[in-house]
Prior knowledge:
Largest sheet: 17 strands, mixed
Structural class: alpha/beta
CATH topology of the largest domain: Aminopeptidase
CATH class of the largest domain: Alpha Beta
Distance between the termini: 19 Å
Bound molecules: zinc ion
Strand content: 15-25%
Number of helices: 16
Number of domains: 2
Amino acid sequence: MRNFILSLASSLLLLSCGDPSNESIVNSTNNSNNSSATSIEDALHEHISILASDEYGGRAPATAGEELTINYLRDKFTALGAGPGNGDSYFQSVAVTELTTASDAILYLQGSDYEASFNYGEEMMVGTQQQIPYVTVQGSEVVFVGYGIVAPERNWNDYASVDVTDKTVIILVNDPGYATQDEGLFNGNAMTYYGRWTYKYEEAARQGAAAALIVHETGPAGYGWEVVSSSWSGPQIGLESENLNGDLNEIEGWLTLDSAEAIFEGAGLNYQELKAAAAQPGFEAVPLGDIQASVSIENSVRTSTSQNVIAAIPGSERPDETIIYTAHWDHLGINPEVEGDNIYNGAADNATGTAGLLILADMHMQQEQPERTIVFLAVTAEESGLLGSQWYAENPSYPIETTVANINMDNLNTFGRMRDVVVVGASSSELETYLEDAASSQDRYVTAEPNPERGYYYRSDHFNFAKVGIPALYAESGEDSVDNGREWGAAQAQEYTDNRYHAPGDEYDPNWDLSGAAEDIRMYFEIATRLANSSDFPEWFEGNEFKAIRDTSSSARQ
Ligand SMILES: [Zn+2]
């Protein structure tokens, strides 16, 4: 069925490619160069001003703002001549469930010589991904499993010596490389996926644990306790699950460092000593004496539906082989509890990247039909935990094993041209070689992100592609401003982080200098064009945590 649709679509495309009736914004202002920087900038301004307008209400999933957003994207893709990318539809339904945990939960710990309770909010945070109104864990044995990592390619298994079925595991955040700053352990200072908190829960669930509690420490987590307590309270959106996530831990949560130290002391153990031991190869999990944990939580459960928007330019030679651009269209919506301006317009985050998808579709439509299919995927619910991209990766419109690459855009540069290009998650895959080439053709240099220990690579949509093995590139303009120097560039970025990031102040400004964003877009265009007319499959570098899964899935390729 897919082949039929694709071949039908590609014959339509042959008719429409280069058809002057297509609504091209890219070449409308400059006839001599149909993807000139100026016209890209003009088009970016236009799309961003609309997507980030108050009328769009901050583009929260399952709101009137979503309707406006997804229809705008569908209409623009249609006008540009880029066809539907999910069979004969531009939309892919994403079913989401919203869970709100009551804030009165208490964690009890009891052993023969120790008894203590910990309050929700100040001393611990608990929640669940199980999509049911009541979850309870009673009298569950407690085990310290160090970093909670099973990494066969690194010969590391924190669960090797212990069966944690129905038990409560206590886990350290980040990974042994960060803890020791030893370049020979994991990626040294740079966080691997094994260091990310989401991984810790996934692994604990695979091991059959009933509850998984991560010890919060500000350094290795990359953020303070307030970020944990605020982001874990209130409604939590997850993908609707057929088994209601019954295979995941009953309870997921965090302990403050003080709480963890007290519990270890109660078991006659020293937290700091065991933490140091856990960073060394050969560490074995340690039961916390006869201490048992009990906790119950009540949830309100609500379901709703949101949409990913997918457009595609079918490949002429190898339509099943795809290059997928992503950008999340969603943002945080409206918060009625905020006084004054309470619309989170999300202009930079991520009306810019969403607009980038439309520009790129336009630019590719101006070219000869590519040999491989180029996909433009605007995903929903990134701000709720990368959910739209997760849904796509689990329900792909094109085969995973022949998806050549993902290029993600999240928060394009609004400060003008930069000399540097920053790779988030550097030294991951051969896509970085393509990036180097494209950047140097613009006289720019590529650098690694300055704070790889914070794990930004795992915090936007490309990560869900990496997780299923697809090489995924996430780069950004740096801070080395062509016109104003590095200090100025860093100050602009800092001002955004301090005052506008995830705040109502992330608004469109007609004075934005989008020349740097335009340059980045041309760089991605060059990479994708090269890949789309090649038969190469770029690979993960040796030692990367996603290489094994790609190697397995690529064996399904003909
Ligand atoms: Zn974003």
